[in-house]
Amino acid sequence: xxxxxxxxxxxxxxxxxxxxxxxxxxxxxxxxxxxxxxxxxxxxxxxxxxxxxxxxxxxxxxxxxxxxxxxxxxxxxxxxxxxxxxxxxxxxxxxxxxxxxxxxxxxxxxxxxxxxxxxxxxxxxxxxxxxxxxxxxxxxxxxxxxxxxxxxxxxxxxxxxxxxxxxxxxxxxxxxxxxxxxxxxxxxxxxxxxxxxxxxxxxxxxxxxxxxxxxxxxxxxxxxxxxxxxxxxxxxxxxxxxxxxxxxxxxxxxxxxx
Length: 258
Known about the structure:
Blueprint: H1 4-10, E1 36-38, E2 47-60, E3 76-86, E4 89-92, E5 96-98, E6 102-105, H2 108-113, E7 115-117, H3 121-131, E8 133-136, E9 139-141, E10 146-149, E11 154-168, E12 171-182, E13 185-198, E14 203-214, E15 219-230, H4 234-243, H5 248-255
Antiparallel strand pairs: 1-11, 2-3, 2-15, 3-4, 5-9, 6-8, 7-10, 10-11, 11-12, 12-13, 13-14, 14-15
């Protein structure tokens, strides 16, 4: 079975089919794949699904020496995915994958690469600089992101491409490309490919590929996460909330999960 996951894994360049090279914007000229294009997820996915996704594969460009926890092979992220009807269509609502707590000494590399949700930045910066320890729960938002770095730099992202394909009965894949801006200047593309295989009303298999591309469309890193998701999502939500030492309702509010 060939989908966008296989295409990204086999190539080190972001496809021109998705983007015009000179200006980050949606290219509507043609579709990414030859399989069946749709505008909605299947109705059988409606509801919340919870589970763990394991990093099973990561490749980096030679100049990437700092491996973020989100992209470390073997690391396991925990996630609740919510599919809901939006008008006449079924959409995957904003999703965040949460990884185990990390605690490392503050370094220049960590300062340069850490991005924090905007409403929690000041308390986090104060605590980190006072202790000399960078401690927190690494996250991976599967959509656009707005936040700030420890140096005060502003990060913002915008969706450039969003498509859904049915690869075969019971297998659906969404491809989202975002552009990322730092202090108002474009610097990076990021692509998320989410594939879901249906195994009945209580279980699906999820695969999520994350690829980062420089502004010239050359691959910086590619990572594949995968694992089983259950309709019994409440224990998973409680695990995430416990990790963050708060309630699930607060996690939903703070991280923009719906």
